[in-house]
Amino acid sequence: MPEIRPYRPGDLPALYDICVRTADAGNDARGHYSTDQLMGDLFAAPYAYLEPELAFVVDDGGTAVGYLVGTADTATFASRYRAEWIPRLGDRYPVPPPPPRTPEQDMHALHHHPERLLVTGLDDHPAHLHIDLLPAYQRRGHGRRLIDRFLATVPAPGVHVGMLTANVQARAFYDRLGFEVLPVAVAGPLTYLGKRVAGFDPR
């Protein structure tokens, strides 16, 4: 059976591959943008780089086939993303023009505005996560195991996820794990779900 283990630097290419192959609301996004690295540069690699201790993979015979990355404190992560991750990528993604923009420029805008992660009303759930598994490894209990590992490790009172409202499969997954809709006011097609971290001790 595939094992859940901590992320290793050698897993990074697999994180990029898994990320882009599940980035279109769970479907394959390869070829959607000028580089297939874009999704990983936004939603996987910065977490593995900034908080590797909170990154875990599903390992099937030495190959990562799924992952969970996250942060214990979204505000600190956003600050470090700006101070450390944006300079690390240099001019890979140009600062986009004001709207209207192309879909790719909208993605570039996410990269240049990490403060978008700071959503009013999430103070009780400061941690957040991203989880992705290759299709062949979905609906086999690996996602639950990844989240259980994260919740047992993250030093935070609560965790949230932001997901596309239209992604009904993801919503059903989080519902089964006890995540609840958080009453935050957001514009756009996002829903925020949260879960308290059982046994959290702030000392």
Briefly, what is this?
With 203 residues, the protein is α+β, with helices and mostly antiparallel strands. The chain has helices at 12-21, 38-43, 45-50, 74-89, 103-112, 142-153, 168-176, and strands spanning 3-6, 56-60, 63-71, 127-133, 158-164, 180-181, 190-196.
Q: Which band does the percent of strand residues land in?
A: 15-25%
- Tally of domains: 1
CATH architecture descriptor name: 3-Layer(aba) Sandwich
What is the count of β-strands? Answer: 7
Order of helices and strands: EHHHEEHHEHEHEE
| Sheet/helix structural class | alpha+beta
CATH fold-level label = Aminopeptidase
CATH top level label: Alpha Beta
Roughly how many Å is the radius of gyration? 16 Å
Walk across the major sheet and give the strand order.
1-2-3-4-5-7-6
Distance between the termini: 36 Å
Name the average pLDDT: 95
State the low-pLDDT regions, or none: none
The biggest beta sheet, please? 7 strands, mixed
Tally of separate helices = 7
Shape: globular
The CATH superfamily is identified as Gcn5-related N-acetyltransferase (GNAT)
- The portion of residues assigned to helices is 25-40%
Structural commentary:
- This protein is of the alpha+beta class and 203 residues long.
- The chain has one domain: Gcn5-related N-acetyltransferase (GNAT) (Aminopeptidase).
- It has helices spanning 12-21, 38-43, 45-50, 74-89, 103-112, 142-153, 168-176, and strands spanning 3-6, 56-60, 63-71, 127-133, 158-164, 180-181, 190-196.
- The protein has a seven-stranded mixed sheet with strand order 1-2-3-4-5-7-6, with helices on both faces.
- Strand 2 and strand 3 (63-71) form a beta hairpin.
